Amino acid sequence: MKEIEDPYLYPEKDAKGYPVLKNKFGIRNYQSLDKIEAELSSLKEVLLKEAKIERTFDLEHLKKIHKHLFGSIYEWAGETRTINMSKAGSRFMPENLIVTFSDIVTDKLRNENYFKGQPKEKFVDSMSNFYKTWNEIHPFREGNGRSTRILLAEVSENAGYVFRQEVVERNKQLWNRAAARSVTSNGNDQTELKALMSQIVIDARAYHLSRTKPEIALKKFPELFPIYVDINNKIKEIDPKSPDYNKEYNNVMSREFRQHVYEINAGKSKFITTLPGLQKDPVVAVSKVQANDEQGKSESKNTSVSKGRSKGLEM
User: Fold this and answer.
1) Please, what are the domains in the chain?
2) What does pTM read for this prediction?
3) Would you tell me which of 71, 177, 193, 290 could form a disulfide with 77, CB atoms 3.0–4.6 Å apart?
């Protein structure tokens, strides 16, 4: 049977028999092109914010991401493929159905309010299905993985979560295997994908609490302030004259931050979000509630901060 011609490839394979994609550099060696592509697209990903791509979370959005990442390498960057494709047993959407199924997955996202307000378990399920569908659509001849992961990260951010790309990179082999197994032609098994997605996505408040400086985290999420107060109160309970002060301090910091991160990510934390002046000055707003609580007047308030509780506050 005659092999179907791929217009994206040079007619001749490289010295080792590998097909090579036509590229702006005229590189005819597969491994060399692969290295250049990885380096340039990684650099472009770092510069993505400067591109100021409108986040419409649809095919046009994904095409702009792809063009930004690969435009310096391929003439067809940002354009949907014109041939049918399969890879390692995974059959992707026929090229004439790319737009149709892209519209379907986008409509579903919009109907679910872009996954906003979903608890962690539901969000993991939604994101797994969202990724599985885009992976099956596979809009481009090359560069689908990196482009789609950026889309996942932006959808997550919009929904109040963080899609941790570093976790994907550390588990690249597992991620690729899970992605392949989730494809319909390979059995439509999302078990591994959902397990990985659960580790990759994290509530944005929990992420910033554990990874960024307090002033940065509070600027983005003022409602975190009572948690910092709670942790600070526990630190004050440590005897400063103790010979093990540093050890006890580190233990408290590690334990308390870990516990709060867990509770936020599991949807068990409650936050003050409606106090007057919260967005303008979270420190003053929450301190007023604390002062009332200490004076025994918290019952007259709709929102109170409970002292000495691991959650830091009650609503």
Assistant:
1) 55-62+81-206 (1.10.3290.10), 213-300 (no CATH)
2) 0.81
3) 71
